[in-house]
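The freezer alarm interrupted the setup, so I double-checked each line after restarting. Inputs confirmed:
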Amino acid sequence: EAQVTQNPRYLITVTGKKLTVTCSQNMNHEYMSWYRQDPGLGLRQIYYSMNVEVTDKGDVPEGYKVSRKEKRNFPLILESPSPNQTSLYFCASSLGGTGGGYTFGSGTRLTVV
Amino acid sequence: SQQGEEDPQALSIQEGENATMNCSYKTSINNLQWYRQNSGRGLVHLILIRSNEREKHSGRLRVTLDTSKKSSSLLITASRAADTASYFCATDIRAAGNKLTFGGGTRVLVKP
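Predicted 3D structure, all chains:
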């Protein structure tokens, strides 16, 4: 089944403790992206990647890192999480170019206390 | 403000009725897409309409695009309780590769 898999689904952590949210897709998509969703602010793009070893900042990149060492994986790293990073996070992928709809993962609900 | 703005923010209808929601955007686009999100879940791609298309259908969904007005509409015909969800428009902007910018969404409640 074509899908984007995110883990974990839920995560509660403490301020300053490094964490990684994993994202993997099995569709050979070139384009991958991370969004965060907050009430009243909608979905905002954090980082995106147009191919292996090619990443770039989205609209709200502060406090986040990503890497794209393989085509299928695009982890989101929070080096020192803070409470304002409490949010619902989505990974998405697409074929890239100007053709494609996104396939979204199921989301990771992160709480930083 | 966001590239895509949906209207209305919330909509409540009876099962069997049609639901219409609108999306306005600001800059030239490659395409416009509509997504559905059930509460707290991932977004599901519904339909993509390219900038040179005016109307597109998929099952009970009908999307129109007016590039002169920079607006789009999503019509759900003969709605069902299972259509209860939030619906988002997203624009693929010409200068931004495959980046999608999402609007704030329309919450649709279909009452049985």
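Quick read of the result. DSSP finds no helices and eleven strands in chain B.
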